[in-house]
Amino acid sequence: IPIQMAEVAPMNPSSPLPIQNRKCFFIQRDYSKGLTVSWSTEFPTELVRVIDERSWVSFIKELNERFAVADKITARSVMETFLGLCTCYIFHPCTRSSYEIHLEDISDYIDDVNEQVFNSRGINVCNPMEQGMRVLEVSFLFAEKDKPPKQPPTLNNLGIVPRI
């Protein structure tokens, strides 16, 4: 699902921050639906002037859906488990599991959205697999002075912001 960013003007920062000076915040994993990997679609206040709410919620929903597909028990995942047990897990290094394939797809999705949408807005969403799937880390790429000017309030509840 492509995310379109028409409401907020892209940033034109002078220089990216060094890694040690970057600010970030974390979105905790949502355990309200059990142990399935998912994150809350609630819009973080840290992103109010950076990205529009619809794009963020769309990204989180798609991410949650992809993790749900990866966690689904299928005939292939059952067969992979059975073959692993029968071969004392010698089978597993010989092939990639369907779960690993889905995780790679999720990683590619996050990289694509970062490249196409988020990085131009001055944020980067880190792959949750790097944090043990406990949190979703969102890093600000540029200094506070390089952020775009404050936008006027929205015209309606659709999040449409007038251009200045």
Any chance you could write out the topology, listing elements then pairs?
Elements: E1 24-28, H1 53-71, H2 75-86, H3 98-118, E2 123-125, E3 135-140
Antiparallel strand pairs: 1-3, 2-3
Helix pairs in contact: 1-3
Summarize the structure in words.
The chain is elongated. The chain has a 3-stranded antiparallel beta sheet with strand order 1-3-2. The protein has helices at 53-71, 75-86, 98-118; strands at residues 24-28, 123-125, 135-140. The longest helix is centred in the middle third of the chain and has 21 residues, at 98-118. By secondary structure, the protein is α+β, with helices and mostly antiparallel strands. The two termini are 29 Å apart.
Share of helix, binned: 25-40%
The count of strands amounts to 3
Strand content: 5-15%
- Bulk shape: elongated
Number of helices: 3
State Rg.
Answer: 19 Å
The secondary structure category is alpha+beta
Straight-line distance between termini: 29 Å
In sequence order, what are the helices and strands, one letter per element? Answer: EHHHEE
Strand order of the largest sheet: 1-3-2
**What's the pLDDT, averaged over the residues?**
79
Low-confidence stretches: 4-15, 148-164
Q: What profile does the largest beta sheet have?
A: 3 strands, antiparallel
Give the key terms.
164 residues; alpha+beta; three-stranded antiparallel beta sheet; 32% helix; disordered C terminus
What's the quick description here?
The chain has 164 residues and is an alpha+beta fold.
